[in-house]
Amino acid sequence: MNISLLGSTGSIGRQTLEVVDLHPEQFRVCAITANASVELLEQQARKYRPALAVAYDEKAAEDLRIRLRDTDVAVETGMEGLLHAAALEQADTVVTAVVGMVGLRPTLAAVDAKKRIALANKETLVCAGELVMARARERGAEIVPVDSEHSAIFQCLDHYAGNPVRQILLTASGGPFRGMTRSQMEHVTPAMALHNPNWSMGPKVTVDSATMMNKGLEFIEAMHLFAVSPEQIRVLVHPQSIVHSAVVFADNAVIAQMGVPDMRLPIQYALTWPRREVSPAGALDLTELGQLAFYKPDLENFPCLALAMDLAGQGGTAGAVLNAANETAVELFLRGQIRFNSISDFVSAAAESIQFVPNPSLEEILAADRETREFVNGLT
């Protein structure tokens, strides 16, 4: 299998390469991309010798070209480079591990090229789920989720294909501030928010976990991936992160997927599906756990989740506005320009202020994204 890896220097990207290293006879990396991590991108290019390396930042690409001038690795830059990597002729599978709205157009390019897409970029379906899934059906492209929760649901549904689903149980760790009130979170710093109790993730996703927006985005993503209504999804806070999610079928049987909290397991399954191979993830020992706990989410003190769930059924540009407002607010928080609680305030303000467009085109989705970012930046 030839893999085009979008976002190779991020958390998911690096773990994908660990899976590749475990199965060198099965996988070959033919394209890698990053934003501006030139040194690591060079190391990856020299190790895996892909046909194409893309540095999104133009100055980083210039540096990378000089570093790789003694190799036959082609270097490109910007969105055009990402689109080329996503549709690369020799790639069988495209892993979309970039974070944020930047992943939308490359995912569509991979869909149009009829690739298998190992989807780790949840923003793609949050912003344009109806458009992306419709085009995937039309083109015959496979979309296999990489997020641990969606991978768990995918595995449960795949094994019992054709059976009617009553409910999806979407689990959440609760993040580092589980049990705290909004007033107690008033003085949360970026360093505090970047400490997740169970998962190793990039900064943006880790902050989303702390606000529980991550679960809100996954709520919307699950609707599109599995063609269910908001009423069919229930969020459960599960601090141990052992039950990655579950499906309740028509007869009320609950089928769950369990495992240690290690992203390499769902990454590998997205690449090898429907086969299962030896994994670098550790074995689960239930006797060491003692117990598994589940709680209702605290929507009052974690309003980002409540906002996402409220907007989930609207469709149109609601998801794009939600995502753009959150991305921008998280960036402002990480730069120390706004407080932690202001993230939800800014997202709420954008949702109320930006004009809603039903049945949007790709251009209208991108326009809503730009307008929302300008609006949120203007609130500071």
Features:
alpha/beta, globular, 7-stranded parallel sheet, 380 residues, 4-stranded mixed sheet
What does this entry show, briefly?
The chain is built from 16 helices and eleven strands.
Structure explained in plain terms:
- The protein has 16 helices and 11 strands.
- The protein is of the alpha/beta class and 380 residues long.
- It has helices at residues 11-22, 38-48, 58-67, 78-86, 104-112, 122-139, 148-159, 190-193, 203-211, 213-226, 264-272, 286-289, 303-311, 318-334, 342-353, 362-377; strands at 2-6, 28-34, 52-55, 74-77, 93-96, 116-119, 142-145, 165-172, 233-237, 243-249, 254-258.
- 46% of the residues lie in helices and 15% in strands.
- Strand 10 and strand 11 form a beta hairpin.
- The radius of gyration is 20 Å and the shape is globular.
- The longest helix is centred in the middle third of the chain and has 18 residues, at 122-139.
- The relative contact order is 0.12.
- The strands form 2 sheets. Strands 4-3-2-1-5-6-7 form a 7-stranded parallel β-sheet, sandwiched between helices.
